[in-house]
Design goal:
Blueprint (H helix, E strand, L loop, with lengths): L8 H12 L18 H5 L18 H19 L4 E6 L2 E8 L4 E10 L3 H10 L15 E7 L2 E7 L10 E13 L2 E8 L11 E3 L1 E11 L5 E10 L7 H22 L8
Parallel strand pairs: 6-8
Antiparallel strand pairs: 1-2, 2-3, 3-10, 4-5, 5-6, 6-7, 7-9, 9-10
Helix pairs in contact: 1-5
Bound molecules: 2-acetamido-2-deoxy-beta-D-glucopyranose (3 copies).
InterPro entries: STARD3 (IPR051869), START-like_dom_sf (IPR023393), START_lipid-bd_dom (IPR002913)
GO molecular function: cholesterol binding
Pfam families: START
């Protein structure tokens, strides 16, 4: 991979915003694994591989369950920290950051309020995660690689074409798990490896350090939504400052898109 020419940096920086969003691009699972169809194929029509949600994980799948548990524990600790710093506040959406010593990167946290119940939001983000490209422009597709059990799955997101021949697309492969504690749903995710979804030369594989959607009911029937994200898009160090800015924008866009979509969910299944 050749470094991008400096002149193209500004043009591509916003595009890069989507790299950080886990809710990022992906492809139509129907024709997986390779070659991956472009964003146009995956755009309006992603496919789920439901696997067998009710089955208990086999011993060989336990490591995924453990990864999910461990990501959840880390995110819970992050949320309890009192040194989150507000970096952006816009139209009811707040973004904060916190430097993570373990990963030597910032954790980002967005917060907003959604007009739907916590159950409905959880249901959408867990059981219809592949549908996110239909409501969120930051995402061009999602593939559910495997539902390992009721509460653990492997999913892959692939970044959109960066519009430059010098920049490869990113993909992220993560294990997701949900946890229900004191009325709050946590859908946590962290990078993993899976035999059925190896990286390939077409994509640079980014990584997610423990990240999470946090969905809490409010007394007024609305839902407090938080997204914690710690992503490494494996970009050149000199581009990192640009990406940090782009990332904040992408988190705002995602929260705004979910907020707009939420009231429409009651009617969907
Ligand atoms: C998605 O694909 C299914 C089956 O291939 C098809 O029936 C459906 O019309 C497609 N939906 C869209 C929005 O393209
Ligand atoms: C799967 O989750 C549902 C609730 O969403 C629960 O009723 C069911 O018992 C769970 N199945 C297993 C095998 O854990
Ligand atoms: C919340 O959504 C419902 C539709 O489900 C709508 O009737 C209501 O006006 C919305 N409330 C607010 C405050 O936006």
């Amino acid at each position: 991979m050749v470094p991008p020419p400096v002149g193209s940096m500004a043009l591509t920086s916003l595009r890069f915003a989507s790299l950080f969003l886990l809710h990022d691009p992906v492809f139509d699972g129907a024709s997986a694994p390779s070659p991956f169809p472009g964003p146009a194929d995956g755009l309006a029509n992603s496919t789920v591989h439901p696997g067998n949600p009710d089955k208990t994980p086999s011993p060989s799948e336990d490591p995924y369950v453990e990864q999910g548990e461990s990501a959840f524990r880390e995110v819970k600790q992050l949320l309890e920290k009192d040194d989150w710093e507000t970096v952006e506040e816009e139209d009811g959406i707040v973004v904060k950051k916190h430097y993570n010593d373990k990963y030597k990167r910032y954790d980002y946290l967005s917060e907003t309020v959604l007009n739907a119940s916590a159950e409905v939001i959880f249901n959408e983000l867990w059981w219809h995660y592949e549908r996110s490209p239909t409501w969120n422009a930051e995402t061009t597709g999602v593939e559910i690689i495997k539902r390992i059990s009721n509460d653990t799955m492997i999913a892959r997101v692939i970044s959109a074409d960066q519009g430059s021949p010098y920049i490869t697309r990113r993909d992220f492969l993560s294990v997701y798990s949900w946890h229900h504690v004191d009325d709050t749903f946590y859908i946590c995710y962290v990078s993993t490896e899976f035999p059925g979804a190896p990286s390939n030369e077409e994509y640079t594989r980014g990584s997610h350090n423990p990240s999470c959607f946090v969905i809490s009911p409010r007394a007024d029937g609305f839902t407090a939504f938080r997204s914690v994200l710690n992503a490494d898009a494996k970009v050149y160090a000199f581009l990192e400052p640009i990406f940090r800015v782009a990332m904040i924008r992408a988190m705002i866009n995602y929260a705004a898109a979910l907020r707009e979509y939420a009231p429409k969910l009651e009617g969907l299944s």
